[in-house]
Design a protein that fits this description.
Blueprint: H1 19-26, H2 31-40, E1 45-46, H3 47-53, H4 59-71, E2 75-79, E3 87-91, H5 93-96, H6 99-112
Antiparallel strand pairs: 1-3, 2-3
Length: 113
């Protein structure tokens, strides 16, 4: 029986990205929908707008996952200097690199649904 080496790099181009990192990022059920919303948007999205777009996500789950995605370098957070209650989020360049993967997954779903 062959064992899976989870520490093996996925590609030679991304030696620091290993399967365990990928699984950790996408293990939460809200990671992919959050990143998709942010990557698909051409401008930052307000927290409350994300909350509505991702219904039925709870505020607790959305806040927790946004914090985690910020820690991983996939999301930027900006708080308005004029109105502190206005917080917006946007995908980083690193997260925008996921666009081709999202497009491939969408094609795969269309083919095999």
């Amino acid at each position: 029986m062959t064992t899976l080496n989870l520490k093996r790099p996925i590609t030679a181009d991304l030696p620091d990205l290993v399967l365990t990192d990928l699984i950790q990022i996408f293990a939460d059920k809200w990671s992919m929908p959050i990143l998709y919303c942010l990557v698909a948007s051409t401008e930052p999205i307000r927290y409350k707008t994300l909350l509505r777009q991702l219904a039925p996500v709870t505020e607790k789950d959305l806040s927790r996952q946004l914090r985690f995605l910020r820690f991983k370098g996939l999301v930027n957070k900006q708080i308005s200097l004029i109105d502190a209650s206005c917080t917006v989020y946007e995908a980083t360049d690193r997260a925008r690199g996921l666009r081709p993967a999202f497009e491939s997954l969408a094609r795969w779903l269309q083919t095999y649904k």
